[in-house]
Amino acid sequence: MQVKANGIDIEVETFGDKANPTIIFVMGFGAQLTGWPVEMMEGLVDRGFHVVRFDNRDVGLSQKFPELGQPNAGDVMAKMVAGETPDVPYTLTDMAADAVGVLDALGIDKAHIVGGSMGGMIVQLAAAGWPERFHSMTSVFSTTGNQELPPSTDEALAALLSRPKNEERDTVVAHQMKVRKVIGSPGYPTPEDEARRRAEETFDRSYYPEGTTRQYAAIIADGDRRARIKSISCPVLVLHGVGDPLVRVEGGRDTAANIPGARLVEIEGWGHDLPAQLVPQLVDEIAAHCSAAGSKAAAAE
After folding, report:
1. Residues 107 and 17: beta-carbon distance below 8 Å
2. What distance in Å separates the CA atoms of residue 132 and residue 94, rounded to the nearest whole number?
3. What is the DSSP string of 25-38?
């Protein structure tokens, strides 16, 4: 369904009973809400939660912003290095406000928030900027923007930023399968037929590569979040794969180290994806974290 959130049109899906505690999921760079496996959403519903996932702005079925143009990532980076504030179409803080706006549109006062990759950056800003709206935060294979951390592997970064040779369905699907293989979990490989099915469904739902240019500019322009996330006061869980070639495990460690009381869970063999084999463990971790945070909040009231 479409809702008006933070002044723009956002595509939202909900699972479970709204009377239960809500967990809102924020996806990563260029990824649609379908990147969060249905099995994960349903697993959390079975644990007694109401679950919300949505398309970020400029991706999926949410509002697109072609009128804002195509920023040059190199220019944005150069201004950041020079200590200047780059002019970007929108910021990660704007995207965090979108998540809060989704809660507003659904009539939800307070929720648990989970974000993956760029979504992890967004939820860090949401929890820091709107502390009264969140019972807990979970950051999944994300980082702090600390430039001293180990970078992505060359192969992973090249795969993420590469474009298919053309925009024909078969070409794009093959390209997305290749990217997934490069950044995916070495210990939990996705079968080729499953990877193809997901890539085809993603293309058929919405193929809009232009939005990734603006999202990438927002990531670069956000810079180092360490000073900002130190103010996060809700319980925080950080989940990260030791085998992640795109956002290295040091990013998760740095996130946990800079948020007071954060708990870090590292998983061997996990890369930069959400393989079916790991969904039960991720559901366990997120459900336990949110339940404990909810009980703590209830006790404090």
Report:
1. no
2. 18
3. EE--TT--GGGS-H
